[in-house]
Design goal:
Elements (H helix, E strand, L loop, with lengths): L5 E4 L2 E4 L2 H18 L7 H23 L4 H8 L3 H7 L3
């Protein structure tokens, strides 16, 4: 695994898979939903959605830079190549 996936904890590197990080993020998102107790706090979901879209853009740009085709990226999203090209223009 690359160093970008390493997390130092107590002087030891601990690696997390993308799936583990996604699982933690999902649990945190659910916790946000359970804690909203004022309609004025609903803007938190808009902020989270913006961050998710930005993370997708970063991931797609990184995959393209690594040589993955839009067709392969589309398969990961379960959409067409054209959908990837529209959603993430170069």
């Amino acid at each position: 695994m690359g160093e970008s996936n390493a997390r130092l904890q107590g002087g030891m590197a601990r690696y997390r898979s993308t799936g583990e990080v996604v699982g933690a993020a999902v649990r945190m998102l659910r916790a946000v939903g359970e804690r909203v107790d004022d309609p004025d706090e609903l803007d938190a979901f808009a902020r989270l959605a913006d961050e998710l879209r930005q993370a997708e853009r970063v991931a797609v740009a990184g995959l393209r830079a690594a040589g993955f085709t839009d067709g392969r990226i589309a398969a990961g999203f379960a959409v067409s190549r054209q959908a990837v090209q529209r959603r993430f223009p170069r």
